[in-house]
TrEMBL record:
One of its GO terms (molecular function) is 5'-nucleotidase activity. InterPro entries: HAD-like_sf, HAD-SF_hydro_IA, HAD-SF_hydro_IA_YjjG/PynA, HAD_2, HAD_sf, PGP-like_dom2, Pyrimidine_5'-ntase_YjjG. Pfam families: HAD_2 (PF13419). This is Putative hydrolase of the HAD superfamily. It comes from the Bacteria. Keywords: Hydrolase. The keyword 4Fe-4S does not apply.
């Protein structure tokens, strides 16, 4: 492997604290629309349901619109909260509209990106929706660290499809051998990158995973040495 010159990061759940920001967004829109559910109960049901629908979305089994609607519909059904289709549609739209207004990052994100920026070209590869991802980066004040942003909408496919990695490398004018992917999802980020020929680091803890993994972004510096 050549010396690493390009670092490709996932955004949600890797740099941008999706769960924290998502919870704040739901609290805001539920208050606005007088949705009377306990937030702790809602989040405990919603998060695994959301993960399930995102996996279906990654594999092109549902559309973006289906994902946005079904994850809320199923959560309300489990909670036995009566929400008609109009309310679910409005909440779905308001959630996307407001999500980027919250900007909690994982610990040490700004510090680590600041240290890496002089020595590496930094990039984002994300399956998140194009209309939201750039806003998230601007709101959390990390957009200036990155040379390129590749979304699944831009590439026309989603991680782990090799075509999104090919698109990102072409946009960054980078070679596989001088690139490294960092992300939280083993299937989409790590295995997807490796199958394409890019080395990858898992952001998270998984005892079944045999490769490099970090639980704090500051640990990335030890892997890059």
């Amino acid at each position: 492997m050549q010396p690493v010159k390009h670092l490709f990061f996932d955004l949600d759940h890797t740099l941008w604290d999706f769960n924290s920001n998502s919870k704040s967004t739901f609290q805001h829109i539920f208050n606005h629309h007088d949705v009377g559910v306990d937030m702790k109960d809602f989040i405990s049901i919603y998060e695994p349901i959301n993960a399930k629908y995102w996996q279906l979305f990654r594999h092109n089994k549902i559309s973006k619109e289906d994902l946005r609607y079904a994850r809320l519909k199923e959560t309300f059904d489990v909670l036995k909260y009566k929400a008609n289709d109009d309310l679910i549609s409005v909440l779905s739209e308001d959630y996307i509209e407001n999500l980027a207004n919250y900007n909690q990052l994982f610990p040490n994100t700004i510090e680590v990106l600041s240290e890496l920026k002089p020595f590496y070209q930094l990039h984002i590869i994300t399956n998140g929706f194009k209309e939201v991802q750039a806003k998230k980066m601007i709101s959390s004040k990390i957009d200036h660290f990155f040379e390129t942003l590749t979304t699944s909408d831009d590439a026309g496919c989603k991680k782990p499809n090799p075509e999104i990695f090919a698109y990102a490398l072409n946009l960054a004018q980078a070679e596989k051998e001088e690139s490294l992917m960092i992300g939280d999802n083993i299937e989409a980020d790590v295995e997807g990158a490796r199958k394409f020929g890019i080395e990858a680091v898992l952001f998270g803890k998984d005892d079944t995973f045999g490769g490099d993994q970090i639980t704090c972004l500051s640990e990335l510096k030890t892997i890059l040495k």
